[in-house]
Amino acid sequence: MAAKRSLWYAFIRTVVRNLFFKLRAGGLRSVDEKNVPMEGGIIVAPNHLSHLDPPSVACGMKRQLTFMAKEELFRGFFGKLIRSLNAFPVRRGETDTQSIRKSIEFLNDGRALLIFPEGTRGEGKHLLPINRGVAMLAKRTGVPVVPVGIVGSHIILPKGQKKIKRHCLTLVYGEPFTYASVAVHASEKENREAFSQELARRIVALCASEGLTLGMPEAE
After folding, report:
1. pTM higher than 0.90
2. Which pLDDT band, with edges at 50, 70 and 90, does 1 fall under?
3. What is the dihedral angle through the alpha carbons of 89, 90, 91, 95, rounded to the nearest 10 degrees?
4. Burial track 117-142 (b if 16+ CB lie within 10 A, e otherwise)
5. Partners of residue 114 on adjacent β-strands
6. pLDDT tens for residues 89-99?
7. In the chain, which ranges are E strands?
């Protein structure tokens, strides 16, 4: 079953990358993918400006991803499709213990888990505050966090728009870091804030390296 699922994921990724991103959207390029560990559990943490962000990250990196997606998407044919591509639901705006347990299980099992730290799409001017759940997962599992800058999805399909514009989308992968590497303060609140600020700083810097200027989120 695992082999079939992997082949299905690879097939869909190839189709979407070639038919949509390359032919329809205007291109997809990855920068410094060498920073993505190819083995062991990792959290892949990009900025979020468009509905195109999840498939772009999946198509732009060689490693197979497991996705955390909002519960509303798991309906009808589309819900069955994303489940077949390793997505699982999360209830936004509340503590979802089941999705947290699944995330920890997947990371401990050595999977690459895609999480958008902002929790929802931003407006394109500032990075939204980092969700506390990312720090919690990074702390409890100890896995590396790979910051990612997504540049161009806000041009191809901006928030609130339905018409596709042609533009090359770029993914910039930053060096991984761990929660423990920044948790050097006396209190857990300070450590969590230090982790969130470091993750935000890295994402903002990656976006800036490809021409997208985002402001830093406000501290807690």
Report:
1. yes
2. very low
3. 150
4. bbbebbeeebbbbbbebbbbbbbebe
5. 44, 67
6. 887 655 668 88
7. 28-31, 42-46, 65-70, 87-90, 112-114, 145-151, 169-173
